[in-house]
Amino acid sequence: MTYPTISLFSGAMGLDLGLEAAGLDIKIMQDIDQWCVKTMEANKYRCVHGDIKQLITEDPKCNFLLKPAGLYPGEAFAVVGGPPCQPFSTAGNRLGTNDPRGSLFMDFYNVIKVVKPRFFVMENVKGLLSSAIRHIPLKDRNNSTLAPDEMPGSVFNIIKETFNSLGYKLVYGILDAAHYGVPQFRERLVIIGSRDQEDIFLPMPTHYQLHQDPSYRWCTLRDAIGDLEDDPGPVATFSADRLKLLKMVPMGGNWRNLPPELISQAMGGAYKSGGGKVGFYRRLDYEQPCPTLVTSPVQKATMLCHPTKDRPLSVREYARIQQFPDNWEFVGKVTDCYRQIGNAVPIGLGKAVGQVLIAVANGNAKIQTRRLRGTSVHESLQRIQNIAIKAAK
Asked: Which of 105, 188, 204, 381 sits at 20 to 30 Å (Cα–Cα) from 88?
């Protein structure tokens, strides 16, 4: 059985490579970013280059996707993607409107409406769950009752209603990539939809902070990049002033480990601001998963300094942490490569989602739990456990 899949907003293909590892067949991809498109082409993948909104306006039947994929409406196993998250951001002042009906989410929805895949997968920032269509800062609320479009979660309510209008059954939640074998803490909102009302579910965690079997424990930064210390490849640089201070920070530390007399000057205006500010002058810990990769490792508030070397993480180390193959080619300047990798979905998380879709499609997502005749409860549970172990291999 094949699982033909269409990918939108494909970026550097982290989600797609994960889905492929699970067994899905990515037939065609789309992105507006020229460097992402060049990266896909350099790695021998077919991609539609262009603004999805314009492409749909010019071709509302989505033949720009269906024809190169060799599919008709209703034949795609899945449509997947992560519409850019800026309209839903909870960062900064959150002024203006976050109405998803005026965002790229609607273009993702329009493709689902026309292509009619069996499943869809949409991933996004976790803040989308709590975003209001019209955000009112706390200082401006004056204890007044919030209007419906000012309520936290009003953005996501619209998204759910929009997908439900197509008849798709939904399941959604925040997933942390560290629980799926990824050497990185990275929380993403994942929404899975089923056209045929199948019993979809979110992927079950496979890795834990504590486990008696080391193979089921979190993967650490050392696991991912320990062999690249002296051969990192292309890498950005910290400014001389920042590097001087970073040299004073031990592995796993940050600005709080600087000499007290230097902290105020080092932090500048951020010193008196709220929040933990954990990313300032941060040196990573080899024995933990990496913090969430950002689009640049040298920004003041989100520094990603190597655990033992006085430099930021390199492009190659970024790629390892996101689980790209070592032979995967990224096209563009160093800054372009960091951005592509930093925006990607970790491959391990994509694989777990793909495994769910295939398990549901094949009807083997559930294990029979009735008591077996002639056996004790303990024996029944042991047999069920053995079946589960075999199914996981």
From this structure: 204
